[in-house]
């Protein structure tokens, strides 16, 4: 399962990067949250080979800033997907991604 934005337009990717640069502590808090890691989420997708224009290649968050895709994914096993409580478990995982989706939404100027 996943959450986030895949292949955003260049302007949108710049907005997200700017939000990370403006509030790196909030971004790191989201990325290191118990809710994020408890369900096995990790960032996935393509990244730039070099730092984006205007970003120092030594920035502590350079790998996140080089992202082309801002998606978090977690694998589900067949057993999990077929479990009687799947809908509840899926909803819990969706809820655990809310701070990530909120960060991206606000970065893009969208309501959350």
- How many beta-strand elements? 3
Can you summarize the main beta sheet? 3 strands, antiparallel
What is the overall silhouette? elongated
Distance between the termini: 20 Å
- Measured by DSSP, the beta-strand proportion falls in 5-15%
* Helicity range: 40-55%
Uncertain segments are none
- Estimate the mean pLDDT confidence: 94
What is the CA-based Rg, rounded? 15 Å
| Class by SSE composition | mainly alpha
Strand/helix succession: EHHHEHEHHH
Oligomer: single chain
- The count of helical stretches stands at 7
Whole-number tally of structural domains: 1
Description:
This protein has 112 residues and is mainly alpha-helical. It has one domain. The protein has seven helices and three strands. The longest helix has 13 residues, at 10-22. The two termini are 20 Å apart. The model has no long low-confidence stretch (mean pLDDT 94).
What can be said about this structure in brief?
The chain is mainly alpha-helical and 112 residues long.
Q: What topology does this entry show?
A:
Elements: E1 2-5, H1 10-22, H2 24-31, H3 34-38, E2 42-44, H4 62-65, E3 70-73, H5 78-82, H6 86-96, H7 98-107
Antiparallel strand pairs: 1-3, 2-3
Helix pairs in contact: 1-2, 1-7
Provide tags for this entry:
112 residues; mainly alpha; three-stranded antiparallel beta sheet; 10% strand
